[in-house]
TrEMBL record:
<feature type="binding site">
    <location>
        <position position="376"/>
    </location>
    <ligand>
        <name>(6S)-NADPHX</name>
    </ligand>
</feature>
<comment type="similarity">
    <text>In the C-terminal section; belongs to the NnrD/CARKD family.</text>
</comment>
<feature type="binding site">
    <location>
        <begin position="58"/>
        <end position="62"/>
    </location>
    <ligand>
        <name>(6S)-NADPHX</name>
    </ligand>
</feature>
<feature type="binding site">
    <location>
        <position position="59"/>
    </location>
    <ligand>
        <name>K(+)</name>
    </ligand>
</feature>
<dbReference type="InterPro" id="IPR030677">
    <property type="entry name" value="Nnr"/>
</dbReference>
<dbReference type="InterPro" id="IPR000631">
    <property type="entry name" value="CARKD"/>
</dbReference>
<keyword id="KW-0067">ATP-binding</keyword>
<feature type="binding site">
    <location>
        <position position="162"/>
    </location>
    <ligand>
        <name>K(+)</name>
    </ligand>
</feature>
<feature type="binding site">
    <location>
        <position position="439"/>
    </location>
    <ligand>
        <name>AMP</name>
    </ligand>
</feature>
<keyword id="KW-0413">Isomerase</keyword>
<keyword id="KW-0511">Multifunctional enzyme</keyword>
<feature type="binding site">
    <location>
        <position position="440"/>
    </location>
    <ligand>
        <name>(6S)-NADPHX</name>
    </ligand>
</feature>
<keyword id="KW-0520">NAD</keyword>
<comment type="similarity">
    <text>In the N-terminal section; belongs to the NnrE/AIBP family.</text>
</comment>
<feature type="binding site">
    <location>
        <begin position="130"/>
        <end position="136"/>
    </location>
    <ligand>
        <name>(6S)-NADPHX</name>
    </ligand>
</feature>
<feature type="domain" description="YjeF C-terminal">
    <location>
        <begin position="227"/>
        <end position="499"/>
    </location>
</feature>
<keyword id="KW-0521">NADP</keyword>
Length: 511
């Protein structure tokens, strides 16, 4: 699903209004009707008090229309206009009049006014600011946000939590409404997925307001949300007359004394993702544990006992997963530099190899085109430098990826894959995966996909999705705390099966 920038959403509005020959007022009515339906389906006439806080623009207008529809259905509402500006949008004014005709006159809240009492069992609808926010809210509006938060009432934000910009991180956390749920129009917003801005809404949901389909499908966006539909398009079925050679030979290079487990995890994940053959290249201390515990993998050993001292092998791998558990011994650093001088095989680079690249920038020029780099935030910072906010981070990551022609997989709760100026936001995964070894599993999976012929970008996006899906499958049995990297590998098969599983709801409809 595409993630549109705010200007594109405004443009989609305009096109829709023109092509459907409607007024903006009709579009607002449609948007607010979706909000009403959502609430009404859940509340079923429950007399709970609903406090609707409306700004003076179209976000506020949505709130006023919702208030009118709730009133008509007999709900217990209180409506407030948060008068943070003298201006009013036309559709706001039209809907204020319509509401007044139904004998609902909102309380106007201005600087210095007493704030309404809200009980924790009430519901708050936040329609104060939407996509039009262009500067930080005034202090008294921030005080109102804090008041809403202190009430601990369920807070439903319209389109976006008020105070959240679409293109920058707010400098003051208090200046944003903390939403329990956000009902966003037509398309998800990028800020729902970034670490410093995603925290303002616990959940979000898209409401289809019928914006012009042609506009939505043809517009180019900088970001895309990756779910099952998107990765299914990449999936390559296994062929009947195939053999292990058809699915490539992955070489996993890494490990050092005390960190052979990382290679074990990556190699095993690589096998479970479908690589035809997997070989591990490790220091000698890794030979026995790997041969004993992972019989499907072959093992080549370095001359040194405890760390990699020279990368030298006589096989022709399709792809190499490099760096897990490798350490940064001087000999290992030299070995990596010499290896990169001659290597032409596609690479997936993680962990210590990334840190070595950060400390030896000249190595970056030696990477084969479209190498996949999988840093966690600290490793990313070492690679691209310090950033100021999530948006600068993304721009810096895009420049880095362009400069070195590499696919950058920024690991996090919504892992973001960057390539060729675009970002792909993953939707699978859970906090149970924040545990040692899960990164090694990802490296193995992406390597295994490239081995089978998936182009690096698709392998990265698909691998990240499947990695999260495996976690989501397994966590149902284990719970967050007990979800280990080994468990994740067990879930890879389920993740593949899930790609083709028919929804229970669909089956029920057919019966
Ligand atoms: N296609 C859709 O998704 C539809 C969305 N709708 C809703 O429309 C809003 C966007 O509405 P808009 O009127 O553009 O913007 P806001 O309501 O967010 O803001 C109103 C004005 O407030 C001013 N502003 C901005 N920041 C501040 C501030 N910190 N303090 C005071 N005032 C501020 C600004 O005007 P200025 O001229 O003063 O700069 C804003 O214009 C969208 O989010 C949806 O909820 C439609 O209803 C249907 C289609
Ligand atoms: K809002």
């Amino acid at each position: 699903m595409k993630i549109f920038a705010a200007e594109q959403i405004y443009a989609a509005d305009k096109t829709t209004i023109k092509k459907q020959n409607i007024t903006s007022d009709v579009l607002m009515e449609r948007a607010a009707t979706r909000l009403f339906e959502w609430l009404h389906l859940r509340l079923q006439g429950n007399p709970v008090k609903i406090h609707l806080f409306c700004g003076i623009g179209n976000n506020g207008g949505d709130g006023l229309v919702l208030a009118r529809q709730l009133k008509e259905e007999g709900y217990n509402i209180a409506v407030y206009v948060v008068r943070y500006s003298e201006k009013r949008s036309d559709d706001f004014s039209t809907n204020l009049e319509r509401l007044k005709k139904r004998e609902v006159t909102p309380d106007v809240l201005e600087e210095g006014d007493a704030l309404p009492t809200i009980s924790k069992d009430d519901i708050i609808v936040d329609a104060i600011f939407g996509l039009g926010l262009n500067r930080p809210p005034d202090d008294w509006v921030v005080a109102l946000f804090e008041h809403l938060h202190r009430s601990r009432a369920f807070t439903l934000s319209v389109d976006i939590p008020s105070g959240l910009f679409t293109d920058r991180v707010p400098s003051d956390k208090k200046a944003v409404v903390k939403a329990n749920h956000t009902l966003t129009f037509q398309v998800p917003k990028l800020v729902f997925f970034l670490p410093k801005t995603g925290i303002f809404t616990e959940n979000w949901e898209v409401l289809d307001i019928g914006l012009d389909q042609e506009f939505l499908s043809t517009a180019e966006t900088d970001y895309e949300l990756i779910g099952k539909n998107e990765v299914l398009a990449f999936y390559e079925p296994r062929k009947k007359y195939s053999h292990k050679g058809t699915y490539g030979h992955s070489l996993i290079i890494g490990g050092s004394y005390g960190k052979i487990g990382a290679v074990h995890l990556a190699a095993k994940a690589c096998l479970h993702t479908g690589s035809g053959l997997v070989t591990a290249y490790v220091p000698q201390c890794g030979y026995t544990p790997l041969q004993t515990n992972l019989p499907e993998a072959m093992v080549i050993t370095d001359a040194a006992e405890k760390h990699i001292s020279k990368i030298d092998f006589d096989i022709e791998p399709t792809v190499i997963g490099l760096g897990i558990g490798m350490g940064k011994d001087t000999k290992t650093v030299n070995a990596l530099g010499q290896f990169l001088d001659v290597n032409k095989t596609p690479l997936v680079i993680d962990a210590d190899a990334l840190n070595i690249l950060s400390e030896n920038e000249e190595f970056l020029d030696k990477l084969p085109p479209r190498s996949v780099l999988t840093p966690h935030p600290k490793e990313l910072e070492r690679l691209i430098g310090k950033w100021d906010g999530d948006f600068q981070k993304l721009e810096m990551a895009k420049s880095f990826s362009q400069k070195y022609d590499c696919v950058l997989v920024i690991k996090g709760s919504n892992t973001l894959t960057i390539y060729d100026g675009k970002g792909y936001v993953n939707t699978t995964g859970n906090p149970g995966m924040a545990t040692g070894g899960t990164g090694d599993v990802l490296t193995g999976m992406v390597t295994g996909l490239i081995a089978q012929g998936y182009p690096p970008l698709q392998a990265a996006i698909f691998g990240v999705y499947m990695h999260g899906e495996a976690g989501d499958t397994m966590v149902e049995d284990t719970g967050y705390q007990t979800l280990t990297a080994s468990k994740l590998i067990e879930g890879i098969g389920e993740a593949f099966l899930d790609l083709f599983a028919v929804d229970d709801d669909v089956l029920a409809d057919e019966e």
